[in-house]
Amino acid sequence: MIELYESQRAMRNMRKAAMQRGVVAVLDVGSSKIACLVLRFDGTDRLAEMDGVGSMAGQSGFRVIGAATTRSRGVRFGEINAMQETERAIRTAIQAAQKMAKIRVDHVIACFAGADPRSYGLDGSIELEGHVVTEQDVARVLSACDVPDFGPHREVLHAQPVNFALDHRSGLADPRGQMGQTLTTDMHMLTVDEAAVQNLAHCVKRCDLELAGIASSSYVSGMAALVEDEQELGAACIDMGGGATGLSIFMKKHMIYADTVRMGGDHVTGDISMGLQVPMATAERIKTFYGGVVATGMDDREMIELEGDTGDWEHDRRTVSRAELIGIMRPRVEEILEEVRARLDAAGFDHLPSQQIVLTGGGSQIPGLDGLASKILGQQVRLGRPMRVHGLPQAATGPGFASAVGMCLFATHPQDEWWDFDLPVERYPVRSLRRAVRWFRDNW
């Protein structure tokens, strides 16, 4: 990622070219699984009208023609920590999806969870030269936003205008063509740890693929799991993955806040493994078949056999009650939800007009989780599944695939971002300018 603005523009153009050729892959790099979907686009005129504000690809039709998942390796807390392992896992998933689709894929759009995301709300205002708002005016007002100094080793992952105001009229989705004197905008900017993005880009490159886009899992899973009314009125999406729990808040169909809690389903499995003294694979199986967070009187009598292969007969033939298992799982799940509540409170979620919360991701499938979450978070909570996409196999319609399905929507109907507009050269992102000045000073 040599330069934020230019590299994001280049990826957007690459994605456009790949979609015109008709096929692109989406890759969800998670801590517990790596999912790959291959999309095919029909119709060639879908990109004809794509200037400026509005979804870039219009309502283009696409179909999933290949899907594959593999167990994730080398990824912790949603970030790559063993490059070769992750490369092998990505190759496995891509090859299996290509085999199913019977077509070779060169371009992928990837999403990831961790990387310590931070949200910023920016605003900018300009006086209009003419009285009618043009594309250049939108670019000027976006470049007028005062970018905070978000520190070294951070990259901007998303920068989206969420609201425009013309004179005293606010809440405009697209101000172009309208008349007024003063144009104002509110922009949401999400920055992440630079190393995590660079590692992912490098890993995709090592797999002989071109990276045509990159997104935050919290954002794309919200796009897939929240219905249109929830995105419009205000809702939070909690994506409980294996190594990290993503959190995003939507309002007026735009993401206005995102964060990540560095705990997820794998931590619950680890607690079971230590508490019952069984291997991780056995703990995962027990969690999947018998797990829960609400104990009833029946659970004292329901016994679970722990089959081991240590060779110690007594140790291998133990049984535990389901109530004991729930006693191990519940504290960790409560801890994750308490952490999520702290982040929601910090974001001012309780000031939104609607406070619906949607749980999705693989970890959300623990029985009784929605009831516990509504107690801890103090709001209505529902379990969200990703919306249906043409050609998606039945196995990939569960909550664990919210990010992958969200990536399909992100690829085909992306929201406008900063780099979709030609910003005046003198107002390029502040960091780029500083870097250029430093380069001149050092080299001349």
From TrEMBL:
> What role does it play?
Cell division protein that is involved in the assembly of the Z ring. May serve as a membrane anchor for the Z ring.
Kindly list the organism's lineage.
Bacteria, Pseudomonadati, Pseudomonadota, Alphaproteobacteria, Rhodobacterales
Keywords attached to this entry: Cell cycle, Cell division, Cell membrane, Membrane
What is the official name of this protein in its record? Cell division protein FtsA
Entries under NCBIfam families matching the protein:
ftsA (TIGR01174)
Residue stretches making up the SHS2 domain: 24-225
Record-linked SUPFAM superfamilies? Actin-like ATPase domain
Q: Do the record's keywords include Transmembrane?
A: no
> What does the entry list under GO cellular component?
cell division site; cytoplasmic side of plasma membrane
Tell where it localizes. Cell membrane
Q: Which GO terms describe its biological process?
A: FtsZ-dependent cytokinesis
Q: How does it assemble?
A: Self-interacts. Interacts with FtsZ.
Q: Which domain of life is it from?
A: Bacteria
- Which CDD domains did the record assign? ASKHA_NBD_FtsA
InterPro entries in alphabetical order? ATPase_NBD, Cell_div_FtsA, FtsA/MreB, SHS2_FtsA
Q: What membrane topology is annotated for this entry?
A: Peripheral membrane protein
User: Can you tell me which family this protein belongs to?
Assistant: Belongs to the FtsA/MreB family.
